[in-house]
Amino acid sequence: MGFFNWAAPLVRRFGDRFTDADIALITRKLGDAGPGGRLLDVGGGAGQLSILLAEKLDAHATVLDPTPEMLDHLPDHPRVTGVSGVAEAMPFADDAFDAAIVSDAFHHFRDQPGAAAELQRVVRPGGVVLILELDPSGFFMRFVALVERVLGEPGAFFTPAEMCAFMAEHGIAGECEPAAGATYVYRGVVRAGPADAGVG
User: What CATH code is assigned to 3-60+67-125+136-178?
Assistant: First the structure.
């Protein structure tokens, strides 16, 4: 049993960590793709972020998570839907969403190139991809990555520069901005066409 299987009740109970400032930052980064939009929360667990954004933006949010125990703790909400699935093989049509958000989850993906390709596929051209991640620079974050690997997680963190270059290779052009603590926010815009189109 993986870490998130047994930790699901704890995540639901203690995972309401998003502040008003966090939601304001995410809302600003989503721009026109947010209000009234179709949002995808990849690795969204028990849906804390999705519920806040759905209510704030009058949007519909879909939580995609591979852990059934996480989705079991997703509260009933008229604007939030839970779907079982993995980031590298999303069960959605092309261009199904106006924006996708990955919060503290990208480093858990075992197939990060596959996940990036799927983000480029399921978010419409001109749509937004937001990735909230931890910068692995520094001793403490190297320790965190080591602990994650001990727990059986990939712990594959990108620096902000690495994230920008990686996503550009997969058809999503963007930039990173520092956030609180070791966190940064990557904001990318999906290019039209195949993931490798226009990448130099």
Answer: 3.40.50.150
Contact call for residues 112 and 30 (beta carbons, < 8 A): no
pLDDT in tens, 37-91: 999 999 999 999 999 999 999 999 999 999 998 899 899 999 999 999 999 999 9
Helices (H), 46-154: 48-57, 68-72, 112-122, 139-150
pLDDT in tens, 95-125: 999 999 999 899 889 899 999 999 999 999 9
Domain boundaries, given as residue ranges, for the chain: 3-60+67-125+136-178
- Burial track 178-191 (b if 16+ CB lie within 10 A, e otherwise): ebeebebbbbbbbb
pTM of the model: 0.83
